[in-house]
Amino acid sequence: MKTLLLTLGLGAIGCLAQATAPETVLTNGTIYSLDSKSSVFRRGEVSFANGTILCIGAEGACAKDATDKTRIVNLQGKTVLPGLIDAHAHPIDAGRAMLDRLNTNRPVMLIATNQHNVWLNTRGLRALNITSATANPPGGRIGKDANGFPTGVLEENAAGPARALSGDRGITDLDAAIAGLTVLRQQGFTTILNALATPTRAWKTLARDNRLTARIFNAFGVFGSLDFDAIAAQARNATQQLDDGAMVASRPGEFWRHVKFFVDGVLPAVSQSAMLVTPYLVNNSNTWVPGTNFGIPGSTSAQLEDLFTKILGINQGLHLHACGDAGVRQILTVAARMNRTFTPSQVAVAHAELVHPDDLAKFATLGVPAVMSYQWAQKATYWNEPSRLTLGPERMARTEPHTGILSAGGLLVYGSDWPVDPLDAFLALKVGVTRSGDASNRNSHSSFGPQFVGRLDTQTGLTREQALRGMTVSATTYLEQEKLVGSLEKGKFADIIVTDRDFLDARAVPDEELGRNRVLLTLLGGRPVWANATWVPQDWTATAKALEDTAIAQRLNTRNILPRSISGRQCQHGSHEY
Ligand SMILES: *[C@@H]1O[C@H](CO)[C@@H](O)[C@H](O)[C@H]1NC(C)=O
Ligand SMILES: *[C@@H]1O[C@H](CO)[C@@H](O)[C@H](O)[C@H]1NC(C)=O
Ligand SMILES: *[C@@H]1O[C@H](CO)[C@@H](O)[C@H](O)[C@H]1NC(C)=O
Ligand SMILES: *[C@@H]1O[C@H](CO)[C@@H](O)[C@H](O)[C@H]1NC(C)=O
Ligand SMILES: *[C@@H]1O[C@H](CO)[C@@H](O)[C@H](O)[C@H]1NC(C)=O
Ligand SMILES: *[C@@H]1O[C@H](CO)[C@@H](O)[C@H](O)[C@H]1NC(C)=O
Ligand SMILES: *[C@@H]1O[C@H](CO)[C@@H](O)[C@H](O)[C@H]1NC(C)=O
Ligand SMILES: [Zn+2]
């Protein structure tokens, strides 16, 4: 009996000793934990083993547990942050966009940069039997000229059949995913929400081959379908077949816990399909007065309520696209009608570009996170004169209300919407803080010319920490994974990035330079998946380098995907001029 107890005791001590021995200690870095106390450790240390953080603290705090097997990495004073989270991106579409080649087969479909609308040539219209007699489908609009002939422009749900007919552009999901992941890890994104996902084997294939370099949450979605029973069945099917269950530090997986639905369209002219409380303005002899267009509703409120019941009923969350103030209000009204508060993952508004002042506080009271794209708060082609005039100055002054939602107690979360814009984490963070772009960055509309330089409006920007929290720990609160990822704390996953410059230090980096930063090292569950600095151990650099698929990398074109459509102006796209 005694012997047994002794053995057990020793075993336990042995386990404990093994568990506390760090495999790796990162030392001599400025470490921002983004924990609830906003702990910062200058010349600090963080250690981990088996993909999980063991210790975070001041100089010596973690290294004291090192054994002769522990690797010590001197960060040379660089900045350590939690891995970044993007709670609304389209990685497969982005991968395709970066790999695409002009396909000369006719008919031709062009997808608008807002991803909502398409343009078909005559052959395309013919293939879909779209004529002057074709009526608008629910939630969609078929562009017609003054004589009633289809112009080729198909908006919102009307674009669905054209997309279905257009096929897969000859790029496999796997190649697109590899391309998408390449850019994500270079920018330090370790977890993302794939915001309009269809079931694919790509993530499983990559996980099997140890090439999955981000944790992928997927919001299942069908563009333009109001068959909620079918959507619920398909979403549940995807969850059952593809969801990897609890997150594991050293094994990034895929998770299917949300359904994406489009409550409205987009704000900018010429689309004007986002739903508004008061109509888009029209030009009445040089005065701008409300016209008749309230935008294009994706559904009625009763239908949306039905969607809530069905999706929450199968224990999935709703990731709801709404850009206009009436679209946002429709969600909040239906949410209120449910007579309950929600857990963060259950109901989220994606984009929320325009929110009625009366509704700002409802995000907090109902427990509905806002997933917003910071970079849209810069002067940009989509805020061109027609867009500004048709919204009018009162509404323009309150677009992209990051601080408005946050200061009313709401949960503000970042989502890039990549590839609607190029993925550029630090540019987005910069715009969140300053509400202006960066003329030196070709991913910023400010690089197009002086008319795009300066603040979009006079709204208060986010603090640096608020902006960063939206891209880290608040995003994991939304995904209900904050116990595992999003901040650097003992027991959480070693999803860690090291950046060249200190985003949070106003003395080191002035506001104007906030977007100029580079991710030097990305660790996913302690595994180096991206490295680009001389102080990084050589075998880590080699491990990260081995992930690069040279065939894909050669085809990758991360440039030239920023929309340059300026109404009435000449546009340049690579060497082509339009
Ligand atoms: C390492 O972590 C995995 C899950 O991430 C776990 O199954 C395993 O037991 C851990 N190993 C040790 C030695 O802690
Ligand atoms: C820590 O990094 C700084 C660079 O910021 C360097 O000057 C210093 O020598 C490093 N300290 C140690 C102990 O390596
Ligand atoms: C278009 O109409 C033709 C005949 O009118 C029919 O055979 C074809 O299936 C239709 N195509 C589509 C895409 O509806
Ligand atoms: C469920 O998934 C299987 C396998 O992917 C597929 O064959 C089936 O059609 C799916 N059912 C629904 C309702 O989506
Ligand atoms: C508004 O309409 C007037 C004619 O009523 C026209 O002269 C003016 O150019 C229009 N303004 C814009 C911005 O389209
Ligand atoms: C919410 O409460 C109101 C008033 O009590 C009731 O009429 C309504 O049916 C309830 N809605 C739901 C979804 O339970
Ligand atoms: C790697 O770092 C060098 C500077 O040390 C920089 O010029 C280069 O652009 C970086 N590569 C990438 C892909 O970020
Ligand atoms: Zn999107």
TrEMBL record:
Domain annotation Amidohydrolase: ranges: 96-529
Stated name of the protein: Amidohydrolase 3 domain-containing protein
Keywords: Signal
Coiled-coil features, chain-numbered ranges: none
Alphabetical list of InterPro entries matching this protein: Amidohydro_3, Metal-dep_hydrolase_composite, Metal_Hydrolase
Pfam families associated with the record: Amidohydro_3 (PF07969)
SUPFAM superfamilies registered for this protein in UniProt: Composite domain of metallo-dependent hydrolases, Metallo-dependent hydrolases
Annotated source species: Neonectria magnoliae
Source organism superkingdom: Eukaryota
Leader sequence residues: 1-17
